[in-house]
Design goal:
This protein is of the alpha/beta class. About 40% of the residues lie in helices and about 20% in strands. A 7-stranded mixed sheet has the order 4-12-11-10-7-5-6, with helices on both faces. Strands 1-2-3-15 form a 4-stranded mixed sheet. A 4-stranded antiparallel sheet has the order 13-14-17-16, covered by helices on one side. Helix 11 packs parallel to helix 13. The longest helix has 22 residues. The chain is globular and about 60 Å long.
Length: about 400
């Protein structure tokens, strides 16, 4: 007999009663260091006073009114994001997939408005992950995600990641734009090279294309800048973000320059819940922290400490970890044994992590993680590695 919850997740048999900062407490009282953060979503950790207060106070006033009316909380959040980024205008939605859907629609509409409706195709990278809608699994291009859902949605071409020659060769008269993650998260914490990001901007300018960055996972301060592409000193035409933007409350955003934003006229795109007062109260509370003076510098510093510790860990346990990659507080351990085995060993050590593609263990703690908590996580990772030593894991796990 099927469970009342549909069986589309392989859930770990553990549930949590509450959280405190970087810690989650299970129903049975066990405490876990949360270095998964709800898949890079709980940017301010658990029970953050400012975030929970903002949500509670807004919920007591008005939760939802729809976009038939002005939403001052959304207007304020949009203005703050524009002031802090390349963008000129913001569309709010509920998730990263929706933000990417809006981005692709805006790219197509921008070209159509310019008298070039034949330019509708978007070039994406192998190893990408852009969401689970029919269009976004097609943009992702992973055969596993496409299996069983019929023909892929037309309009997406795929090229090797970090390969500018392949990207330029894929440009045709039907190409509207490019959509790339500055750091591929689900694909295995694979950073784009700085020169690659700069080359994408140059190619887009040369061929009259629109450039989009998917910063659903790597944005909102995770790398030590508000958005990861800023490290390359380039600006896209549009950017999708979600996850950490609401600190755990569902919220996504398309940030665009004026050229792209003007394409989304009334009636062209919409959302019932997106940008409602409660979601945007959460978003503003997150920005209160992330944009505070010195906060992103602290993320950079703590990220460097974490990276150094992970590299030392990989050096000590080369039979378990073969490499480290990532940036800031978005790090991945390339595993020499199955990453699910390492994830289970971490759980036994009281550390939560997330498996990713390319046999990578993803480590994305809340941005408020302290140095002592990073050191504690490294100790637990060392214990997990010892559990995974060939021939010893079964005994250690008992």
């Amino acid at each position: 007999m099927i469970a009342s919850l549909m069986p589309n997740y392989n859930r770990i048999d553990i549930s949590f009663s509450h959280g405190e900062g970087v810690w989650l407490v299970a129903d049975d009282g066990r405490r876990f260091l949360d270095f998964g953060a709800g898949i890079a979503t709980s940017a301010l950790g658990h029970g953050h006073a400012g975030l929970t207060r903002a949500i509670a106070e807004q919920a007591a006033r008005v939760i939802h009114v729809s976009n038939l009316y002005r939403v001052p909380q959304a207007e304020r959040l949009a203005a703050r994001l524009v002031d802090a980024s390349f963008g000129d205008s913001v569309f709010f939605c509920n998730s990263g997939a929706e933000a990417n859907e809006a981005l692709v629609k805006a790219f197509r509409k921008t070209m159509a408005d310019a008298g070039k409706p034949e330019r509708y195709r978007v070039i994406c990278a192998d190893g990408a992950f852009h969401g689970r809608t029919l269009a976004m699994i097609s943009a992702t291009g992973n055969a596993k995600y496409l299996a069983g859902f019929g023909p892929a949605v037309d309009g997406f071409d795929h090229v090797p990641f970090n390969n500018l020659n392949a990207l330029r060769d894929a440009i045709t008269p039907a190409t509207a734009g490019i959509l790339v993650e500055p750091i591929q998260g689900e694909g295995g914490v694979r950073p784009a090279q700085i020169e690659y990001l700069r080359g994408l901007r140059a190619a887009a300018d040369e061929f009259g294309l629109l450039l989009g960055f998917d910063e659903v996972q790597c944005g909102m301060g995770r790398t030590g800048r508000l958005f990861a592409h800023e490290w390359a000193g380039v600006a896209p035409d549009a950017l999708s973000t979600a996850k950490g933007i609401g600190g755990g409350f569902p919220l996504g955003a398309l940030i665009a320059n004026e050229t792209v934003a003007r394409a989304l006229v009334p009636g062209s795109h919409g959302t019932t819940f997106g940008g409602n007062p409660l979601a945007c109260a959460a978003g503003n509370a997150v920005l209160d922290v992330v944009l505070a003076p010195g906060f992103l510098d602290d993320v950079t510093r703590r990220g460097a400490r974490f990276r150094s510790g992970l590299e030392a860990l990989a050096h000590r346990h080369p039979d378990v970890f073969s490499a480290v990659r990532g940036q800031g507080l978005m790090q991945g351990l390339v595993c020499a044994v199955p990453n699910t085995e390492v994830q289970s060993a971490c759980l036994a050590e009281g550390l939560l992590s997330v498996a990713a593609g390319d046999n990578v263990l993803r480590l994305v703690p809340p941005l408020i993680v302290t140095e002592s908590e990073i050191d504690a996580a490294l100790e637990r990772l060392d214990g997990a590695a010892r559990r995974c030593k060939p021939g010893l894991y079964a005994d250690a796990a008992k």
